[in-house]
Amino acid sequence: MGSRASTLLRDEEIEEIKKETGFSHSQITRLYSRFTSLDKGENGTLCREDFQRIPELAINPLGDRIINAFFPEGEDQVNFRGFMRTLAHFRPIDDHEKNKDPNVSEPLNSRNNKLLFAFRLYDLDKDDKISRDELLQVLRMMVGVNISDDQLGSIADRTIQEADQDGDSFISFTEFIKTANTSLEPWARLPGTTLHHCHC
Amino acid sequence: MEDFGKIVFSAFIVWFTLVVGLIMLPAMFGISLGITEVYMKVLVKTLEWATLRIQRGSKEQQKPTTLVSNGIILRDDSSMEKEITDLRKGRSRPQINGEFELSDIFYFSKKGFESIVEDEVTHRFTSEELVSWNLLTRSNNNFQYLSLRISIIWVLGVFIRYCILLPLRVTLATIGLSWLVIGASLVGLLPNSSVKNWLSELVHLMCYRICARGLSATIYYHNKENRPRKGGICVANHTSPIDIVILANDGCYAMVGQVHGGLLGIIQRAIVKACPHVWFERSEMKDRNLVTKRLRNHVADKTKLPILIFPEGTCVNNTSVMMFKKGSFEIGGTIYPVAIKYDPRFGDAFWNSAKYNMVSYLIRMMTSWAIVCNVWYLPSMTRQEEESAVQFANRVKAAIARQGGLVDLSWDGGLKRAKVKDAYKEEQQKSYSKMIVGDDSS
Asked: How large is the ipTM?
């Protein structure tokens, strides 16, 4: 009878997370369930090993980078709030949010923030530009051993050449936005929300 | 004090006689007195009533009921190539085949996030979540709302399960196991003959039947005409050690496994005297050729009982079937697939060996409402000529999954403890490399 009362989320917390991330009540409880099932140490936080235990994530070539995105600078544990904050980036963009009060800060899953998130996957040293080395690192992770250093180098050079507009051989965030001007496929349709498939 | 002692003693005798007369003897001869049926009917009615009340209660409180059976996200099942090409469509310039785009990263990060929210594998190693509560404390994860009436029923349930059913079941199980050891040893003293085989089968069947009653197991067997025959190999999906009791209630099998110490070791040594089972020392298990050879010899002898093997190699939570290890399918002979599906409403049969050891697991089993399961015997299969062992294993696995209504996964059950092989990551890297260098192989 209510055996896990101590580990259940309080309603106030759910409201706070709702405001911050935009997830619905049922989505938050469902994701909390997921969080606790990943938390093998049962101490309310996740460490990197907890993520790596997910086989589909472990075989993702960018798995380590994605896991890193959850952990704030220099820390090894992430709690549920942090977990939700990072997941919020990939929530689909709701149409009805577009007409919200402009004074409210940009929602975490806005198009801009999604692109910023992807930019940070490349930009490891967080100096707001992607260097040739950083690009090569990510490329190497995605292709493994199947492409030679030379060929990979020329791919990187070509990419920088196309994207770089101010000629400093780095890709800044603005240049990134212009080049990666893709039809940003929203993350997924979550049951329980009414949302439109957004091609922005 | 003496009178009290006498009363307790005579009460015990009466109770014991009832147990033997009403449960054990009919079980030994495979007859049912109908007590279990009545019990099950009452149980089902109570659970249905409880479900309705909980639903009504949560509607009144306007709490959103969490959707358990639906996944939380909808996934695209298209290939890597298609998805990355779709991502690139927003480009204004014409696309030259074999190029890298900065936006390619979105494919991998999206897949990564999807797997963090929900993946196919990790939840197969914990008990299945129930759609509605079945009045057992252990399965109360999401159902917080309880009315007074339900609480009363729940307390009653705890009393019945722990104070009435548990001692009863423990008694039966003890009787069953001791009879197995004694009976098998006695039969083992006889010289080899058909009488010995017949007696050994009888002893085994009776004891497993008593043990099944000791778990309040109700088993429905389907397609009995496909039952495994001598000289064949029976393969089934694995959920718990109880699978053996479930299957052995309807036929005799030769068991395969490691030699254990303790109680299990005693049982193993006893039953191998009565009929040939295949027990391996721990060191022998590592030598795959030796294992295959011994099993092949056993199968070749058509007078020996069919071998029972669980190719998954580990216990899974009965919502899916995981990768079948190819070793069992290289032995040759006829394979008789069997699908076992437990009904989770009455008790969770899955053995989470990380969380519970054998004794606590058995106590959990004996304090559930009942173990209800369906066993389907599937038509026999043999390996085709051009088929590799792996393909054959997958074919059998698909048939079992289809029959039992389970999800067919190719992930290895060993992922419960071990890390996933790098080979899968390398596969993905290879496909992606092909995309960005075009068709020239480098």
From this structure: 0.82
